[in-house]
Amino acid sequence: MLKSKLLEKAKKQFKELDKLKVEVGVLENTRPYKDSDISVVEVATIHEFGTEKIPPRSFLRVPIRDHQKEIIEKAVKEKYRLFISGEVSAKAFLAYIGEEAVTWSKEAFDTQGFGAWPLHAESTKAKLKKKVSLKQGYCKTRAH
Known about the structure:
Number of strands: 2
Shape: elongated
């Protein structure tokens, strides 16, 4: 009887989880990047994909793809039992996974793409010292 109730609760949680998604990234395009004519989303896109003159410095796709195992393992280790028991909602469980992905994204900035990003030109380095980093509050998560 007890196993049956736990199993039903877990099934319900997974059914709810299947209806949800988590988004990680620069989710809003509401303001210009510090003292410039382009938006935060445009700067993020340039970082992520590069341009003809600027090499890509992925802070979303590559770090999250390369570290998805660690992201999921941490969520399972810390929240899975609470999730399947119903103590943590499916939305909260997914949001936790998203926040862990954001942590890896921020780590990519701190480590220059875990040491893989091309170096900036000297002219760019001087400009960057005056700018606010994209990692400061721009990378967000949303579970829905």
